[in-house]
Amino acid sequence: MAKFIRLLQILHTVGRYRLDELLYNTQKPRILALLLLFFRLYPKAKDSRGRRLRFALEELGPIFVKFGQLLSTRPDLIPGDIVKELDHLQDNVAPFDSETFIQIVESNLNNSIENLFKNFDKQPLASASVAQVHSAELHSGEEVVVKVIRPGLEPIIENDTRLLRIIAQLVEKFTSEGKRLRPIEVVDDYRETIFDELDLAREGANASQLRRNFENSKLLYIPEVYWDYSCKNVLVLERIYGLPVTDTDKLKAHNINLKRLAERGVEVFFTQVFQHNFFHADMHPGNVFVSFETPHDPSYMAVDMAIVGTLTREDQYYLARNLLAMFRRDYRQVAELHVLSGWVPRNTSIAGFESAIRSVCEPIFEKPLKEISFGEALISLFQTAQRYQMPVQPQLVLLQKTLLNIEGLGRQLYPDLDLWDTAHPFLERWVRDRFHPKALWNDFKYHAPEWMEKFPQIPHLIFDTLSEIKELGKIAPELKLLAQDLNPPHAQKRKKFRNMLLNLSAGFCLAAGVYLTYKHLPELSQTPKEALLLISAGLLVLFNKT
Q: 168 and 186 in contact (C-beta within 8 Å)?
């Protein structure tokens, strides 16, 4: 009964804000005609479609607000005017009782609030749909914030996400845009994301990793996690004091160098994505602050690390080269990189894809560099690629949303910010360093222990190969015919025999090279050239055999 009432409430809200009009440009199936006719009984909408959707989500409650925030991270699927409105969704809800908060802390940490904290403020510092935060002081004197998951959230999330999925199934099945928008996938992604946010231990681990990455850095400060006071439902973090990044009046009052601050935002993004390969994927203005300790050389401070992103080494490489090629207007290389990366099918027409990319990018790059949006350029590029069956890449979607956030912050702080001026040398240097001999040698040393572990198995592999060759020797009459017989079965045997010999040769080279490396393990930096030559020869044989 409760689910039915909730469904009626959702339908009433859809009608009140005339969200049915969002489907008016699609083919209307007969099964929905009655429902659409019912919605027309409501007064005609006056606000824009994006604002109406935002108001409806806010009225339906915090779970729908969080869903709207997720939709705002999908500019690859959602029109730009709607994304901009959803970016304004405020995740502020009424706080729950502080006594309940204390009970949750005490039951999860198995101790009284007095023993845990020297001082505890019963007045909430912040209250959102998933968690609530109070300030406190440890007995050792450190000021901290205590974050707790709202009680009873799981059944609410379960019920609302089920209803959302039903709506998504109807949209996907009965609208012409359904398959392109992939609403079921979006809802499932949201369900996974919000349940992940209920695990504060995961958020704490993300915060620890980010803090370690930026240790002794002037770019970004991440608060310390107090693990002795943290668990799945409770997270205790160092309390930070900073200026809201969007409050330009306060920033100017503290003489913050806004140009330097804006440029550092770009540095933070590219450092996280390419150098650390671990980026804060929820850097909206509410999660970012500015330190006022060194106004001439400002740094950022970030909170709420529930959502982070990573890329594969291949995605890092292709993304960097794509950006460089785009800004050089080398659309042929952009098309080739998409095929090489596997982002689009191998049989994609390079010429046709290049032409499509050119038609999208040329209007963008006719503008002055300081007016070009990296994020919007990437979105346009990926939307074009999707017409060539490029599947959704969740890690790239997170990345482009993060880039849009960083760009928005940067241009709000300093409108004349030229992102390319900051990003170009970083990308050039990263691509160059990736193939520097020192980097390749570091990769070799990284994998060397694993190879050493497998080294004892090499004699067995060689013995097995020799045994197979011996077995082949028993069919000598057939082997004599391999050179002249073009019959496919015999050709396959000949190829197998040749590959065995090549494997054997490669195995001997690799074994000898690894042995010499192992022999000089205490001074790896002085590994003899003979070892490198043997290993290179072995790899060359393996990579070039047919």
A: yes
